[in-house]
Amino acid sequence: MKKIIIASLLLIVSCQNDVKKEPDIADLTIQDIVAENSKEAEEAKKWLENSIVGYFKADISEQEKIMKEITTDDYYEFKTDAINVDMDVDGSLILKEFNQKWEDKYDTNFAGINSGFLISAQDWINIEVRKCDVMTSLKNVYIFNVILADDGFKAQYFRKIKVINENGKFLIDGVIESN
After folding, report:
1. How remote is the C-alpha of 106 from its chain's centroid?
2. By mean pLDDT, which of 10-24, 50-64, 107-121, 143-157 is the weakest?
3. What distance in Å separates the CA atoms of residue 71 and residue 94, rounded to the nearest whole number?
C-alpha cells in the first residue's frame, strides 16, 4: 500500500511539473517588451513601405480596392468621406456633416478634405517612400513619420501615418497630412 501511495504522489508531482503556464506580464522585463515592440514595429514599417509603393504602382482602376485592403474599415470610410466633401456625388457630405460624423473618431482638421489618399495631388509620376521612421510603438499601434516624394513633379508629402495590428494584420488607421 505504501508503494502505491508513493507512486501516486510521484505521478501527481511529475504531472504538475509538465503543465506549462502562460508567461505572466510581470515576468517580462522592460528589455523584453522593448525588443518585442521593436521587432513588430520593424515589421509594420516594412509592410507600410511596401503597401504605399504597391498602391501607387497599381493601375488606377485597382487603387480603391487596394486602399480598402490596407486601411481599417473606419479609416477607409472616413477618408472616402473626406475626399468627397461638398462634391456632387451620391453620399457626399457637407463639411459640417463630415465633422459631426467623424469628430469623435478622427481629427477632422487633418483629414485632407478633397485630396487623395496619402498624397494631395491628383496626378503623380513615381511616388517613392523617402523616409519612414517609427515615432511611437505601443501595444499594436505604430506611428510613422513618412516622407513621400515624386521627383517627376518635384513634390514631397510629409505624413504621420498610424498603423495598427488588427487580428495579426497591419492596417492604416490614420494619416495626418501636414502640407
Report:
1. 14
2. 10-24
3. 23
Query: What is the extent of the structural domain holding 93?
Result: 29-177
Inside any domain, residue 100: yes
pLDDT at position 171: 98
C-alpha cell at 129: 517612400
Share of the chain above pLDDT 90, in %: 64
> Around Cβ 59, how many Cβ atoms within 10 Å?
7
* CATH number of the CATH domain containing 146: 3.10.450
Residue linked to cell 490614420: 174
Q: What is d(CA 167, CA 164) in angstroms, rounded to the nearest whole number?
A: 10
Quote the CA–CA distance of 91 and 78 in Å, as a whole number.
12
The answer to the question of residue 11 being in a domain is no
- Number of folded domains in the chain? 1
Q: Does 99 map to a domain? A: yes
Close Cβ partners of 143 (under 8 Å, ≥ 6 residues apart): 134, 135, 136, 137, 160, 161, 162, 163
Q: What is the mean pLDDT of residues 149-176?
A: 95
89 in helix, strand or coil? coil
